[in-house]
């Protein structure tokens, strides 16, 4: 059997998301101690913080908890609605500052930025039009550039914007428009392979076309049959996840081997964090999947 090319520039990790964690505090989620124990047991070295407040927010305590399990933190995550213009800046910065300070204290270098949802992921209520106006696009681009600048100046972190289903940065057209209207010195992308496929995009093509803008990866796959039903029925993202639209690799799309090879060819160090959306899920479900996923990624050379 041919050995895969070693992906020596790719640092693999996982995230609370792969344990069914979407909220800081929710009785349907596994306790944070169990997540840390199991992510280490599954063979991962790197983790993300997940929703702010799920893991301990005291840097000394969190440092101790991750160190004793031989884990390291790759990034924190923030949610933003910067297309709404300068009026939301102060509120956004207050949230970003909390998460960025903890991320910096944990020695991480990245802040994953998720745009706000136009459709509620729990209730499916339409909150805003799915298409932005020209003015809103301008607010979004300028706001993200400002955020990238301020986060770098204040906390020494790089922001990576995460295209996401049911947000305004989702399809190939929207992702390319966003990249073309922002400065790569200030703003780069967290390419989530599952969300991009969910919205019809080709991850390998994006990496090959906009390689210098790919700052971070989330590894995820979609089940094409469930996705077809979801698209046909106009199902919102939250209920789609409950149907199992995000599936265990290598059973879905895109193929992760070619994505990782394309990322390796960029010639830069990149995190590739596994995120299999499973909210809500049975507490015993994530660990076996995580073990199998880690084994699969090793078979790809990662």
TrEMBL record:
* Domain Xylose isomerase-like TIM barrel per the UniProt entry, residue ranges: 36-299
Query: What Pfam families would the database entry show?
Result: AP_endonuc_2 (PF01261)
Alphabetized, the UniProt keywords read:
Lyase
List the EC numbers from the record: 4.2.1.44
Care to name a GO molecular-function term for this sequence? myo-inosose-2 dehydratase activity
For this protein, the record's InterPro entries field holds: IolE/XylAMocC-like (IPR050312), Xyl_isomerase-like_sf (IPR036237), Xyl_isomerase-like_TIM-brl (IPR013022)
Name the Gene3D superfamilies on file: Divalent-metal-dependent TIM barrel enzymes (3.20.20.150)
Q: Does the keyword Lyase apply?
A: yes
* Protein name per its UniProtKB record: Inosose dehydratase
Gene for this protein?
A: iolE
